[in-house]
Design a protein that fits this description.
Number of strands: 12
Strand order of the largest sheet: 2-1-3-4-5-10
CATH superfamily of the largest domain: NAD(P)-binding Rossmann-like Domain
Number of helices: 10
Largest sheet: 6 strands, parallel
Structural class: alpha/beta
Protein name: GDP-L-fucose synthase
Number of domains: 2
CATH topology of the largest domain: Rossmann fold
Pfam family, one: Epimerase
Function: Catalyzes the two-step NADP-dependent conversion of GDP-4-dehydro-6-deoxy-D-mannose to GDP-fucose, involving an epimerase and a reductase reaction.
Catalytic activity: GDP-beta-L-fucose + NADP(+) = GDP-4-dehydro-alpha-D-rhamnose + NADPH + H(+)
Shape: globular
GO molecular function, one term: GDP-L-fucose synthase activity
Bound molecules: NADPH dihydro-nicotinamide-adenine-dinucleotide phosphate, ligand F7E
Strand content: 15-25%
CATH class of the largest domain: Alpha Beta
């Protein structure tokens, strides 16, 4: 199959490309400078020309709680435009299959955990990332409507839990929890600092999946697309407190300091554990243990840091 992958330079996209079985499919992954998905006309002509058999939509304006709070307009509008443009372009070109990557932020802030796919739109969203979540919900619904309107088109949505891994974003202005912890604890270890600050009480809970595992799940979804539900969570099935994640990274990196808590910082949803019932029925679960995934991500981070030191000499 000829597959168009959007977001191929991002964390999820890079992990999808790293796990692509050579030669099995033709994977076309244009960077945003080549295909700006917020440009409807450019997106339509690109897709019409390429005529892929499938699209995996993994592009987005993505960031942690602080980035979402700082730029709600951009998180709403850019993700809305990208989602609309790629789905409408696919429909116009008659692309038969599309996998849309959603996010666990789509769920209502007070929905019971574990979060089931049917809970989308049953309550108010989490204010700290509402704009992003609205765009995610709209794109998922648009996929549903297109699939229902044309029997030749099947556009499905995968809803991943929080992710981390190689090719993640470590800049504190945009990073999610785990890359932020890795950067802070690594810095404490190298500078000999005795404490690291945690945003909030650390009692909030999150579920994190290794992005390489998600990529394996997405390839499984590609190969068994017809068996895939219209909407399916992608999770690990267990969550941990923010404090637990800080302790896990300290353990992996080998730093024995202590933690302080800045209660003025935003904490977002209390819990965000997705149900893996549909995923287990589909027959896929992630394989990498948390400590091993943190260790691989840390090693990757250190390589990036050494490389950036070399170039700045
Ligand atoms: N990270 C996480 O914790 C989670 C992420 N997700 C979802 O997974 C998907 C990928 O996330 P992630 O890999 O972390 O994000 P990244 O920020 O790492 O990558 C985003 C990608 O989107 C591309 N992109 C951004 N704007 C445009 C544009 N205007 N036109 C074309 N491409 C654009 C970028 O391309 P380029 O580099 O070429 O500019 C980049 O490759 C997103 O849909 C996100 O919502 C879901 C749950 C959790
Ligand atoms: C992936 C998904 O999830 C994102 O929402 P989120 O899960 O709230 O994002 P987060 O990973 O940045 O924070 C997780 C928790 O961690 C706590 N926390 C502690 N200390 C740090 C810290 O130093 N940095 C960060 N970022 N968080 C910290 C923080 O207070 C919060 O309680 C959406 O933005 C959106 O991107 C989306 O789709």
């Amino acid at each position: 199959m000829k597959i168009l992958l959007t977001g191929g330079n991002g964390m999820v996209g890079r992990n999808i490309r790293d796990r692509a079985e050579q030669g099995r499919h033709e994977l076309v992954a244009p960077p945003s400078r080549e295909l700006d998905l917020t440009d409807a006309a450019a997106t339509e002509s690109y897709v019409a020309q390429l005529k892929p058999d499938m699209i995996i939509h993994a592009a987005g304006r993505v960031g942690g709680i602080q980035a979402n709070m700082a730029h709600p307009v951009e998180f709403l509008v850019e993700n809305l435009d990208m989602g609309r443009n790629i789905v409408i372009a696919a429909r116009k070109a008659g692309v038969p299959q599309l996998i849309n990557i959603g996010s666990s932020c789509m769920y209502p802030r007070a929905a019971p955990n574990p979060l089931e796919e049917s809970a989308v739109l049953t309550g108010e969203l989490e204010p700290t990332n509402e704009g992003y979540a609205l765009a995610k919900v709209m794109t998922a619904r648009l996929c549903d409507y297109v699939s229902r309107s044309d029997p030749h088109l099947s556009y499905k949505t995968l809803i991943p839990c929080n992710l981390f891994g190689l090719h993640d974003k470590f800049d504190p202005a945009v990073s999610h929890l785990l890359p932020a912890i890795i950067r802070k604890v690594d810095e404490a270890k190298r500078t000999g600092a005795g404490t690291v600050e945690i945003w909030g009480s650390g009692e909030a809970r999150r579920e994190f999946m290794f992005a390489s595992d998600l990529a394996d799940g997405i390839w499984t979804a590609v190969e068994r697309f017809d068996e895939l539900p219209a909407t399916m969570n992608m999770g690990v099935g267990t969550d941990h407190s923010i404090n637990d994640y800080y302790a896990a990274v300290a353990r992996v990196i080998g730093w024995q300091g202590s933690f302080t808590h800045d209660l003025s910082k935003p904490v977002g949803m209390k819990q965000k554990l997705v149900s893996v019932a549909l995923q287990q029925q589909f027959g896929w679960m992630p394989a990498t243990p948390l400590d091993e995934a943190i260790a691989e991500t840390y090693a990757h981070y250190r390589t990036l840091e050494e490389a950036s030191k070399e170039t700045s000499k």
